[in-house]
Amino acid sequence: MTDSTSQGVTRSLTLDVVGLRWAGAAMLGLGVGLPLLPHNPGLPCPLRTLTGIPCPLCGMTTAVKAGLSGHVQASLSANPFGVVAIVVAVVLLLRPGMRSVRLPVALLVACALTSWVWELRRFGII
Protein backbone atom coordinates (compact mmCIF):
# COMPACT_ATOMS: atom_id res chain seq x y z
CA MET A 1 0.00 0.00 0.00
CA THR A 2 1.51 3.29 -1.00
CA ASP A 3 0.29 6.77 -0.29
CA SER A 4 0.27 9.29 -3.10
CA THR A 5 -0.69 12.92 -2.74
CA SER A 6 -1.88 15.29 -5.39
CA GLN A 7 -2.85 18.95 -5.22
CA GLY A 8 -5.25 20.02 -2.48
CA VAL A 9 -7.39 17.57 -0.58
CA THR A 10 -7.52 14.80 -3.16
CA ARG A 11 -5.51 11.98 -1.67
CA SER A 12 -5.58 8.42 -2.81
CA LEU A 13 -4.08 5.09 -1.85
CA THR A 14 -2.70 2.63 -4.34
CA LEU A 15 -3.46 -0.85 -3.04
CA ASP A 16 -1.60 -3.95 -4.15
CA VAL A 17 -4.51 -6.34 -4.73
CA VAL A 18 -2.49 -9.57 -4.89
CA GLY A 19 -2.69 -10.04 -1.11
CA LEU A 20 -6.28 -8.83 -1.09
CA ARG A 21 -7.12 -11.43 -3.74
CA TRP A 22 -5.87 -14.21 -1.44
CA ALA A 23 -7.73 -12.71 1.53
CA GLY A 24 -10.89 -12.46 -0.57
CA ALA A 25 -10.59 -16.08 -1.65
CA ALA A 26 -10.13 -17.14 1.99
CA MET A 27 -13.13 -15.02 3.03
CA LEU A 28 -15.33 -16.61 0.35
CA GLY A 29 -14.16 -20.11 1.30
CA LEU A 30 -14.79 -19.54 4.99
CA GLY A 31 -18.13 -17.88 4.27
CA VAL A 32 -19.25 -21.02 2.45
CA GLY A 33 -17.57 -23.51 4.80
CA LEU A 34 -18.30 -22.13 8.30
CA PRO A 35 -22.07 -22.74 8.16
CA LEU A 36 -21.37 -26.40 7.37
CA LEU A 37 -19.35 -26.96 10.57
CA PRO A 38 -21.00 -28.26 13.73
CA HIS A 39 -21.95 -25.47 16.14
CA ASN A 40 -21.38 -22.92 13.32
CA PRO A 41 -18.47 -21.07 14.98
CA GLY A 42 -18.32 -17.30 14.66
CA LEU A 43 -15.59 -14.79 15.20
CA PRO A 44 -16.19 -12.36 18.07
CA CYS A 45 -15.26 -8.71 17.59
CA PRO A 46 -12.35 -7.89 19.94
CA LEU A 47 -13.44 -4.25 20.42
CA ARG A 48 -17.04 -5.20 21.18
CA THR A 49 -15.92 -8.03 23.49
CA LEU A 50 -13.68 -5.68 25.50
CA THR A 51 -15.74 -2.48 25.48
CA GLY A 52 -19.27 -3.33 24.35
CA ILE A 53 -18.87 -0.89 21.45
CA PRO A 54 -19.01 -2.41 17.96
CA CYS A 55 -16.31 -1.65 15.41
CA PRO A 56 -17.02 -0.68 11.77
CA LEU A 57 -16.44 -4.32 10.75
CA CYS A 58 -18.83 -5.84 13.31
CA GLY A 59 -21.27 -8.15 11.61
CA MET A 60 -19.05 -8.82 8.59
CA THR A 61 -18.66 -12.55 9.30
CA THR A 62 -22.42 -12.88 9.70
CA ALA A 63 -23.03 -10.71 6.62
CA VAL A 64 -20.67 -12.71 4.41
CA LYS A 65 -21.99 -16.09 5.61
CA ALA A 66 -25.59 -14.95 5.09
CA GLY A 67 -24.84 -13.41 1.69
CA LEU A 68 -23.09 -16.52 0.42
CA SER A 69 -26.00 -18.64 1.68
CA GLY A 70 -28.42 -16.55 -0.39
CA HIS A 71 -29.91 -14.66 2.58
CA VAL A 72 -29.34 -11.17 1.21
CA GLN A 73 -31.70 -9.40 3.64
CA ALA A 74 -29.97 -10.98 6.65
CA SER A 75 -26.63 -10.04 5.16
CA LEU A 76 -27.65 -6.42 4.68
CA SER A 77 -29.07 -6.30 8.21
CA ALA A 78 -25.82 -7.54 9.77
CA ASN A 79 -23.57 -5.17 7.81
CA PRO A 80 -24.34 -3.78 4.35
CA PHE A 81 -20.65 -3.78 3.50
CA GLY A 82 -20.65 -7.60 3.67
CA VAL A 83 -22.29 -7.65 0.24
CA VAL A 84 -19.69 -5.13 -0.96
CA ALA A 85 -16.90 -7.38 0.37
CA ILE A 86 -18.36 -10.39 -1.48
CA VAL A 87 -18.60 -8.45 -4.74
CA VAL A 88 -15.05 -7.09 -4.39
CA ALA A 89 -13.66 -10.57 -3.64
CA VAL A 90 -15.41 -12.06 -6.66
CA VAL A 91 -14.20 -9.25 -8.93
CA LEU A 92 -10.62 -9.72 -7.71
CA LEU A 93 -10.82 -13.45 -8.40
CA LEU A 94 -12.31 -12.93 -11.86
CA ARG A 95 -9.66 -10.36 -12.80
CA PRO A 96 -6.34 -12.08 -11.98
CA GLY A 97 -4.38 -9.64 -14.15
CA MET A 98 -5.32 -6.70 -11.94
CA ARG A 99 -2.29 -5.90 -9.77
CA SER A 100 -3.29 -2.67 -8.05
CA VAL A 101 -6.16 -0.28 -7.60
CA ARG A 102 -6.20 3.38 -6.65
CA LEU A 103 -8.88 4.46 -4.18
CA PRO A 104 -9.62 7.94 -2.83
CA VAL A 105 -8.91 8.20 0.90
CA ALA A 106 -12.17 10.12 1.32
CA LEU A 107 -14.12 7.14 -0.05
CA LEU A 108 -12.44 4.74 2.37
CA VAL A 109 -13.07 7.06 5.33
CA ALA A 110 -16.71 7.60 4.29
CA CYS A 111 -17.27 3.83 4.02
CA ALA A 112 -15.69 3.18 7.43
CA LEU A 113 -17.72 5.94 9.09
CA THR A 114 -20.94 4.81 7.42
CA SER A 115 -20.35 1.24 8.54
CA TRP A 116 -19.55 2.33 12.09
CA VAL A 117 -22.66 4.51 12.36
CA TRP A 118 -24.71 1.59 11.00
CA GLU A 119 -23.31 -0.73 13.69
CA LEU A 120 -23.72 1.82 16.50
CA ARG A 121 -27.39 2.24 15.50
CA ARG A 122 -27.88 -1.52 15.09
CA PHE A 123 -26.63 -2.15 18.63
CA GLY A 124 -28.70 0.76 20.04
CA ILE A 125 -25.74 2.90 21.05
CA ILE A 126 -26.91 5.93 19.04
Outline the secondary-structure elements.
Blueprint: E1 2-5, E2 11-16, H1 17-33, H2 46-51, H3 60-68, H4 72-78, H5 81-94, E3 100-104, H6 105-122
Antiparallel strand pairs: 1-2, 2-3
Q: CA-to-CA gap between the ends?
A: 33 Å
Shape: globular
* Count of helical stretches: 6
Taken as a percent bin, the fraction of beta residues is 5-15%
The mean pLDDT is 88
Describe what you observe in this structure:
This protein is mostly helical. It has helices at 17-33, 46-51, 60-68, 72-78, 81-94, 105-122, and strands at residues 2-5, 11-16, 100-104. β1 (2-5) and β2 (11-16) form a beta hairpin. α1 crosses α3 (60-68), α1 (17-33) crosses α5 and α3 (60-68) packs across α5. The protein starts with a strand and ends with a helix.
